[in-house]
Amino acid sequence: MLDDLNELKTFREILHRGSLSAAARSLGVALTVVSKRLATLERRTGTRLINRTTRALSPTEEGARLLVDIERALDAIAVGEERLASGRDEPVGRLRISAPVAFGRRHVAPALATLVTRYPRLSASLLLDDRLVDLVGEGIDATIRIGLPADSSAMMRKLADNRRILVASPAYLDRAGRPSTPMEMQGHAFLRYGDATLPWRLTGLDGEQVDIEAMARLHADNGDVVHDWALAGMGIMLKSELDVVGDMQAGLLERLLPQWDGGQSPVVALYPSARHLPLKTRVFLDEMATRLAGLPRG
Questions:
Q1: CA dihedral of residues 146, 150, 152, 157 (deg, nearest 10)
Q2: Dist. CA 47–CA 38, nearest whole Å
Q3: pTM score
Q4: Contact by Cβ (8 Å): 272, 97
Q5: Digit-coded pLDDT (tens) for 179-215
Q6: Which of these, 255, 201, 194, 256, lies nearest to 224 by C-alpha position?
Q7: Which domains are delineated in the chain?
Q8: SS3 for the chain, per residue?
Q9: d(Cα 280, Cα 48) in Å, to the nearest integer?
């Protein structure tokens, strides 16, 4: 059994380090030991697990699937060892989180930095991607999304209320004027990302709804680019409140039409199963909920 664990740990280290020699240095063993362990593992599984070239190596399809299982198994073993050694539960292992690019940079990355500082045996990987990832297939512990998913079999926890609001830089509004009603937005410059063909639907405090065509001369497929355009005074954007609250507090962006918003878009976390939620995932979700609850609102 011990030899089997060493093979699994070595396989994981090879893929994490990117080469057999780097894995050997990390594990403190000879390169021949690493090569032998990998060969033995491939022989026992009856399949090639790593594609090797003169310049790089990468997991085969079977190797990638095995790596996900190995990560979870070794993390579970580490948790058990920690519990026996300390008499208390403490998150250990690698925490794998996916989040949208802009939100992940502003809110998730600092949370992960705090957690790995607080818990010495915890490490973290952050995948910044605006797409909805395959939690199980990609070995992700949790993914953060803005807005409720249209269809997902994953478990979900709401981390914070959120809404989309209209903002622009004070310089742009000084130049172009500050609309006081949705109708007064006609003729303004709009900044958009994603699907720029649909109108912006605004909802008032009394439930009234109006559509703004918001035809944009500047459009991008990345929210950070649009955010930069807004800061540069290029026009008005409709953005998640949690993405812009810091800039509003700093006076870099100003909210328009405070009696109107673009609808609720809560921050949620999706994770594979609630039955055996790992401690590392639970402390991450709690940390995110605490951080988001403490943010000022516009």
A1: 40
A2: 11
A3: 0.66
A4: no
A5: 999 999 999 999 998 777 889 999 998 889 999 998 9
A6: 194
A7: 2-62 (1.10.10.10), 90-162+266-293 (3.40.190.10), 164-261 (3.40.190.290)
A8: CHHHHHHHHHHHHHHHHCCHHHHHHHHCCCHHHHHHHHHHHHHHHCCCCEEECCCCEEECHHHHHHHHHHHHHHHHHHHHHHHHHHCCCCCCEEEEEEECHHHHHHHHHHHHHHHHHHCCCEEEEEEECCCCCCCCCCCCCEEEEECCCCCCCCEEEEEECCEEEEEECHHHHHHHCCCCCHHHHCCCCEEEECCCCCCEEEEECCCCEEEECCCEEEEECCHHHHHHHHHCCCCEEEEEHHHHHHHHHCCCCEECCCCEECCECCEEEEECCCCCCCHHHHHHHHHHHHHHHCCCCC
A9: 32
Question: How far is residue 7 CA from its own chain's centroid?
Answer: 31
110 CB-near residues (< 8 Å, 6+ apart)? 291
User: Residue type for 227, please?
Assistant: H
**pLDDT by residue (tens digit) across 17-51?**
888 888 888 888 888 888 888 888 888 888 888 88
- Give dist(CA 145, CA 132) in Å, integer: 8
